[in-house]
Design goal:
Structural class: alpha+beta
InterPro entries: Znf_SWIM
Keywords: Metal-binding, Zinc, Zinc-finger
Protein name: SWIM-type domain-containing protein
Order of helices and strands: HHEHEHEEHHEEEEHH
Region (Disordered): 249-272
Radius of gyration: 23 Å
Biased composition (Basic and acidic residues): 249-266
Largest sheet: 4 strands, antiparallel
Strand order of the largest sheet: 1-2-4-3
Length: 272
Amino acid sequence: MTDQYLTTVLDKAERVAEHHEQVAQSSDHPEHEYLRYAVLRLLEGKADETSVEVPQIDGVTVGYGEDDAMCNSWDDDVEWWETVPPQEACTRFRVFYPDEYDAVPRVIVDVMAALGAWRVWIGSAAACGSYDHRERREVHYLWPEGHPVEALLANRLQDPEAAVAPDGGRSGDVRDRMVVTEHSPQHDDLEPRTSRAVDESMAVSLLEKGGRYEVRSASGNWYEVDVISESCTCPDWRKRTPEGGCKHLRRVDQEIKQGRVPRPDGRLPSNS
C-alpha cells in the first residue's frame, strides 16, 4: 500500500505545482513545498481524483512548519522536543484527529510512510496548548529537506523533452533498447514478452507529445502506453507490472528505435 500511496502523493504534488505554484514562490526547495502541501490536501480530504482511494476521516487537519522555528516559538510550553531535539532543515507535521481513535488512523500512517516521514510524538492536542483542537489528539512527523521523494517529483516536473533519451526512449530506461526483428540472430534469445512484442502484429501511433502512444494489438484491442511514466492500460501491466514492461511498452520501444513512429518529443529519431 505504501507504494500506491507514494504514487498518489506524487500525483497530487504535480497538481499542486500546476495549480498552486505560489506555495513555493520564495522557496529554494519547491518540490519540498509541493509535497508537504499535497499531504495536507490528501489528509484533509481536499484532493481531486486520485489513483488510489484515500480514506477520509472527518476532523483531520494538518499543520506544518520548520522544526527549529517551531521549537523557538513553543519550546518552553510543550514537551515535543524532549524525545527528539529540534532538527535543522526539517519539516514537522502536526496531524490532528478525533480522540475517539485509540491509535493513529491507518491512512495517516500510510501517507506519512509513503512520504518517508517518521513519527516523533503523539499526545493530546489540548494538553499542548492547541485550544482550537480540543477533544482531539495529534501526532507529529519529521521529514527532512532533500528527501529522495523530492527527486522523484522533480523528475516528473521536468520538461518532457528532457526526460527522453537521444533515440526517443526514456532516460535511464531499464528495458533492453537494442533493435531486433523476427530475422535478427539474437531473436531466439529474447525474453518471451520481447519476443511477442517483435513477432505480433501491432499498430503504434503517437497520441500526444510527451510520450503517450496508442497500440492496437493483434487481438484488436487498443491500449495506451506512456513511455515517460512506463505504464500501459493493458491487463498484463495493470495486474502484473512485469519488470521490463509489457509487450506493448516493448513494441513502442522498438518502433521508436527503428524510426517508425515519432519520438516522445514529437520528432523522428535523428538516425531515421
